[in-house]
Amino acid sequence: MSFEIEKREAAHLVAVVENGSHSPQQIRLAYEDADPALIYLIFAWLRARYRGHSAAEGVYGRIVAACASAAVARMVKVGEKDAVVSWFEETYDYRALERDEFIAVVVEKLES
Questions:
Q1: SS (H, E, C) the chain
Q2: Res 20: pLDDT
Q3: Can you give the residue range of the structural domain that contains 35?
Q4: Tally of domains in the chain
């Protein structure tokens, strides 16, 4: 299966944090409906990808703003302990994957 809808939804979650096109409230609402493992993986990927990048402050700020929601913060903690996260971190390096490849790998694993 290709999971195109799920990949588009995950890409949207990445994009709203990367480009700042949504308000902090809109970002929180989008993340409150997501899978905890997906949230954790997206935030970890963004932190790794933007380390040392000129846009890091904005990206990190939007992650912090999303986690201002108690629900999102709890989901991140739950997601961190998910078996898919362990598998991903044992198998891949966050910085080695470009956005589309990262999304494809994560979504396909979560949905299979």
A1: CCCHHHHHHHHHHHHHHHHCCCCHHHHHHHHHCCCHHHHHHHHHHHHHHHCCCCCHHHHHHHHHHHHCCHHHHHHHHHHHCCHHHHHHHHHCCHHHCCHHHHHHHHHHHHHC
A2: 86
A3: 4-111
A4: 1
